[in-house]
Amino acid sequence: RRPPRSTLFPYTTLFRSTDLYHNKQIFGEVSPDACTAAFGQILQLVSDCTLAVVYGAVDKQKHRNTRYKTANPLDVAFCTCIEGIQSWMKEKANNDLCILVADDDESSLKVKAAFKETFRSLRQRMRPPDFSSGKLDCIHDAIYFGDSKDSIGIQIADICSFVIRKHLENPVAVEGFYRLLEPRIYAGTVHPVDGL
Hints:
The protein is an alpha/beta fold and 196 residues long. It is 44% helix and 14% strand. Helix 4 crosses helix 5 (109-122) and helix 6 crosses helix 7.
C-alpha cells in the first residue's frame, strides 16, 4: 500500500534522516515540531505496513579486543544483516525470493565493492551441475544499489537505521521513536556477541 503523501516533503526530495531529526539542511526552515512529527509518522508507517526490520551493528571499541579485530566492522554488520534477511525469508515468506537493494552512496566506492564481494561469498552464482546458490538461497543472485533520492524505501531504511544507531548509542535520546520501531525488529545483533 502506498504511504500517504506528506505535506512536509514530496516523494522526489532526497532527505537524510539526520537532517530531518536535527532540523537541518532542507528542513532548516521547517519547525522542529513538524520535523519531529514527520519522523514519527515515517516510523509509524513502518509499523502500519508491517515492514520487517533487520540490522547488524558492531561495537567498534569491543570489536578491537576480539580475536576477529582485523575484520572490517562494516562487513561484520552487513553479513549479520543479510543473514537476518535470509532467516526472515525462510521463516516468514515461505522460502520465497527477494532482492537486496542498498543505498548507492557514490562517495564510498570501496564500501560498495566490499558489499559486493561479501555478498558474492555468501550467495554464489548458480552453475551446473548442482546449481547451488550458497547460504543465501532466498536472496536473488545479485546485490543492487539504488539512489535514495529515487526510493522512499531506501530513505525509510535510513531513518530506521538512524533510530537504531541512536538507540544503541544513547537509548534515552530516541526512546519514543525506538518504541515505534521496536515491534517491527525481526532480528538485530550487536557484535561482538558474548563468547566470540
